[in-house]
Structure formats: structure tokens, C-alpha cells
């Protein structure tokens, strides 16, 4: 089946630093989604990308849908302690096929 | 607006006991519904999804089953739990043909 390679697996950064994580796939997707999961809670949608080349921001977060439709990245600028959590990318081929998730990037922010 | 709710939030069950986790969605009709499992500190594994009442697709063979008795209700069950069934179970929904899914709060299951 389809698989997403998400990297890095974990990150330890200083408060105020910028963060970058990405996902790559061997096959194309028509939608890329980025979620954040806080401990003990369900993932919350951060950014949705629906078009190849699309660059979308949500506050300090910026995500891009790769031109080849096989990759996406998420950047967080000026990290703060509440950015701690697990970030998941997810790709979708069509509306009635299940999302394919990456394995997550665990972000730790050191104050 | 649409909401999703699942329960119970936490559950401790002995090995061999049955399981029933419930999920309901409000504010939409004919949603696609999903059950995911997340082992501690790991990624999300799709267990079941449903595009309509009585229609269940299983992604992973196991001792769990899912049912959709009503349009906006999705139930995850087991007749006999195994230790390996422990984990964080997440229900999710999307609009029919939609390209974004939304998760419930999650249910922690510990099998002892």
C-alpha cells in the first residue's frame, strides 16, 4: 500500500527557533494535510493543501504542496513551548479513499 | 457546526473481555467514518472505515470488528480482548467524497 516517509522522527529545539519537517511519498496525492496531536488528545487539523505548488500559512505555520504531488513540508517559525506535540502529515488520493498518514514528528521545545 | 464525540474516554479491561467503543457525529449527514488505533508514541493505524450504513471496510485483519447501525454512529467491538489491543483509539469523520478528516477526542484502552 501507499506509504509516507515523514522526517525527522523527533526534534529538540530551543524556544524561538524555526522548525521544518517534511513528508515524501512514492506515489502522488491530490491532498496533503498536516495535523498536530497534543498528548492524550485526538489530532487537530492545522493546514490543508489541495493544489500542487500551493503554499498556505496559518499563523506561524507554513506548509507547501510539492509540485510533483509526492511531497509536502511544514515550517513553524519562532517556536514556543505550546508547539510541543506530534505533527502528522497525511496524504489523500481521492475523496473515498482513506488518508495515508506519516509516522509523525515529535517536537520538543526547550525554553 | 459538526461535532464528533467518542466514549468512553478511558477503559481498563481484562484479557478476554468484550469491548465496545462508540462514536457519533452531529451536524452532517452520510459522513465517511473511520476508526484508527495509535500504540503509545507511534503513528496512526487505520482499522476500519465506512462510507455508509452497514458498509464496513477492514484495513487490518485482527480480532476487532466495526459496525455502523445508524448513519452517524460507528462502533468498534471485540468479543475477546488481547493484551496487544491496548492503545489509543480514534474515531474520525469526513464528508462524503471529502478530502479532510476530523478526529474525535480519543479513547484510551488498557488491556490487563
Written overview of the protein:
The complex is a heterodimer of chains A (111) and B (112). Chain A is mostly beta strands. Chain A has strands at residues 4-7, 10-14, 19-25, 31-37, 44-49, 55-58, 61-65, 71-76, 85-92, 100-101, 105-110. In chain A, strands 2, 4, 5, 9, 10 and 11 form a six-stranded mixed sheet that branches. In chain A, strand 9 (85-92) and strand 10 (100-101) form a beta hairpin. With 112 residues, chain B is mainly beta. Chain B is globular, with a radius of gyration of 13 Å. The chains are: A mainly beta (111), B mainly beta (112). The interface between A and B is medium-sized, with 24 and 26 residues.
Summarize the structure.
The complex is a heterodimer of chains A (111) and B (112). Chain A has 111 residues and is mostly beta strands.
Order of helices and strands of chain A: EEEEEEEEEEE
User: Portion of residues in helices of chain B?
Assistant: under 10%
Instruction: Please tell me how large the radius of gyration of chain A is.
Output: 13 Å
Principal-axis shape of chain B equals globular
How would a textbook summarize the main sheet of chain B? 7 strands, mixed
Computed structural class of chain B: mainly beta
State the helix count of chain A: 0
Content-based structural category of chain A: mainly beta
What is the H/E order of chain B? EEEEEEEEEEE
Q: How large is the radius of gyration of chain B?
A: 13 Å
- Name the poorly predicted regions of chain A: none
Observed structural traits:
heterodimer, A: 111 residues, mainly beta, six-stranded mixed beta sheet, five-stranded antiparallel beta sheet, 11 strands, globular, B: 112 residues, seven-stranded mixed beta sheet, four-stranded antiparallel beta sheet
Amino acid at each position: 500500500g501507499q506509504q509516507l516517509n515523514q522526517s525527522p522522527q523527533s526534534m529538540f529545539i530551543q524556544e524561538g527557533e524555526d522548525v521544518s519537517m517534511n513528508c515524501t511519498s512514492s506515489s502522488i496525492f491530490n491532498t496533503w494535510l498536516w495535523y498536530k496531536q497534543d498528548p492524550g488528545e485526538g489530532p487537530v487539523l492545522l493546514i490543508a493543501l489541495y493544489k500542487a505548488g500551493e503554499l498556505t500559512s496559518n499563523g506561524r505555520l507554513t506548509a507547501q504542496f510539492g509540485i510533483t504531488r509526492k511531497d509536502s513540508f511544514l515550517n513553524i517559525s519562532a517556536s514556543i513551548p505550546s508547539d510541543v506535540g506530534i505533527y502528522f502529515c497525511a496524504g489523500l488520493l481521492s475523496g473515498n479513499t482513506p488518508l495515508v498518514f506519516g509516522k509523525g514528528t515529535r517536537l520538543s521545545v526547550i525554553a | 457546526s459538526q461535532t464528533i464525540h467518542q466514549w468512553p474516554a478511558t477503559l481498563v479491561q481484562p484479557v478476554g473481555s468484550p469491548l465496545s467503543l462508540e462514536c457519533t457525529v452531529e451536524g452532517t449527514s452520510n459522513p465517511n467514518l473511520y476508526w484508527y488505533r495509535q500504540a503509545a508514541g507511534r503513528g496512526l493505524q487505520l482499522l476500519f472505515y465506512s462510507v455508509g450504513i452497514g458498509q464496513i471496510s477492514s484495513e487490518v485483519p485482527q480480532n476487532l470488528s466495526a459496525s455502523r447501525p445508524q448513519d452517524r454512529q460507528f462502533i468498534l467491538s471485540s468479543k475477546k480482548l488481547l493484551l496487544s489491543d491496548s492503545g489509543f483509539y480514534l474515531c474520525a469523520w469526513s464528508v462524503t467524497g471529502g478530502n479532510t478528516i476530523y478526529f474525535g477526542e480519543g479513547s484510551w484502552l488498557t488491556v490487563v
